[in-house]
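Our consortium's second objective concerns turning raw sequence data into structural hypotheses that experimental partners can test. To show how far this objective has progressed, the report includes one record in full. It was chosen at random from the queue rather than selected for favorable results. The single chain below, 187 residues long, was entered without modification.
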Amino acid sequence: MEEYLKAFNIFSDKEIEEVIELGTYQELKKNDFFTKEGDISSSLAFVKDGIFRSYYLSQSEEEITYCLTFPNSFITAYSSYISQEKTKINIQAMTDIQLISLPKSEMDSLVNSSKNWLLFFKIITEQYYIALENRVFQLQTEKAETRYKNLITHRPEYIQKVPLQYLASYLGITQRHLSRLRANISF
């Protein structure tokens, strides 16, 4: 987490030390939940190791994977974290996870006391929004084959580490369709 925060070039060493001291190290096992539908997100976590998937249930109770989170990233049920209302999403460990959990109340105190933390959250929010907008545009304007090829090029770790059922859901296609794409596209 220290290296990740240093890369933004906005924090002093003291500010980074303070946030690390606020964190609580946690381990989750594969299939454990960081957040479940109906929870209120009261923490932000830095993923040290492991992979999370974020999903929601469709009206037909089908799990729709909409986000995958790899190490060296922050994770939370973002809308719930901001609004402090119940979330509609589930964040589940796809592998064993190591994370550092930071309470929202402590993070809010940092934001209120430091322009640097306010700037950090602004940057993270902007990055999150841009990624979300790009994802929506891809799902609405690109063919499944193009979306799959983009993953191969830009996110090869998804192809290598995410089970097919979740990868298919993330791409907005069936597992059968994904199998056909994989058979027709060589790496």
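The partners drew two points from this record. The chain has nine helices and eight strands. The CA atoms of residues 12 and 97 lie 28 Å apart. Both points have been shared with the crystallography group to help prioritize constructs.
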